[in-house]
Design brief:
The chain has 96 residues and is mainly α. It has helices spanning 5-21, 28-35, 37-57, 60-81, 85-94. Helix 1 (5-21) crosses helix 4 and helix 3 runs antiparallel to helix 4 (60-81). The longest helix is centred in the C-terminal third of the chain and has 22 residues, at 60-81. It is globular, with a radius of gyration of 14 Å. It starts with a helix and ends with a helix. The relative contact order is 0.13.
Length: 96
């Protein structure tokens, strides 16, 4: 069965929203939300640096791994700030 590639972004976003509303014990996502915006932004920055480092030194699979971490932390920030994937899609479309 073919998966809509955009659907995984929406699925992950929805899981993060659900964790925000319904905390799950032991959830890393809930840990980030409990620590607040400062911790979320710090992790986002760390992940961005890891993408840069892996891009300079790593193989494609390593870069993809780090980009996925960055994307996850970016979505945590989006949920924290009330930004949806559609908000981002609309902004990107407006730039075309």
């Amino acid at each position: 069965m073919s998966e809509n590639k955009e659907s995984i972004i929406r699925e992950l976003y929805d899981v993060i929203v659900d964790r925000r509303i319904n905390p799950a014990e032991g959830s890393y996502t809930n840990y980030l939300f409990s620590k607040g915006l400062g911790k979320i932004c710090k992790k986002l920055g760390e992940e961005a640096i890891e993408v840069v480092i892996s891009s300079m030194n790593g193989e494609k699979k390593d870069i993809v791994y780090e980009i996925a971490d960055l994307q996850y932390h970016l979505m945590v920030l989006m949920v924290e700030k009330g930004i949806t994937p559609e908000d981002v899609y609309d902004e990107l479309r407006s730039r075309r």
